[in-house]
């Protein structure tokens, strides 16, 4: 996987890959892309200083109402698995930078809410570092099961291979979709396709074993992959988020897929779980008083 480089210019953050670059203008809050690599002369013109190596752009978010927007990037990752030569990675650390004219040394503590905002930013960073539950792949659609991938591939083939992953992603498991809203909502968002990276929250792991008939000495290598995807809708704390909403989303919905790969023959078994699909609520974490049926 190619490593990108993040620079800080006079009024922009500049994210550079080998082929193009993504620019975040701090003054106008605009995001635009240049379909060419950034060389030293361009960096010198913009007085850009190297900040860090990163792997992808996660998106932006505002922590508190009167706060600023923050940009999130994958700073470090671990290889987890490979499905038909398509690599999957776990995010182990993130880089969070202000999308504003913000002196990180002074920390802009003149705003009353700054201390609270910085504390939340640190909590967000720890969320990625400690939970280790965010995953992505640049070439494999982690948001969809093998069955759904096969279904949409057969329906819109051969154009499927030309479509970016984010346009094929299952909206329920596209965890950072709202964080990428500014790129997705652009009229010419095809320019941003390489920068829109779907991320799932859940779990991915693999094991290898030998399979074959009992009377055969020679066994075949097999790969078992487990993928759990957490729904981004109604994903609140288990004891405080219950039942179903008017759109049919149940609380704490998780889809778990077990994939068996033998000689590149893929078999998949899918299980789902979630809150009881009725309108109900619960006070506290005990069953006294009993749960209430709301509708």
UniProtKB/TrEMBL annotation:
It comes from the Eukaryota. InterPro entries: SAC_dom (IPR002013). Coiled coil: none annotated. It holds the Pfam family Syja_N. GO terms for cellular component: clathrin-coated endocytic vesicle; early endosome. GO terms for molecular function: phosphatidylinositol-4-phosphate phosphatase activity. GO terms for biological process: phosphatidylinositol dephosphorylation; regulation of endocytic recycling. This is SAC domain-containing protein. The lineage of its organism: Eukaryota, Metazoa, Spiralia, Gnathifera, Rotifera.
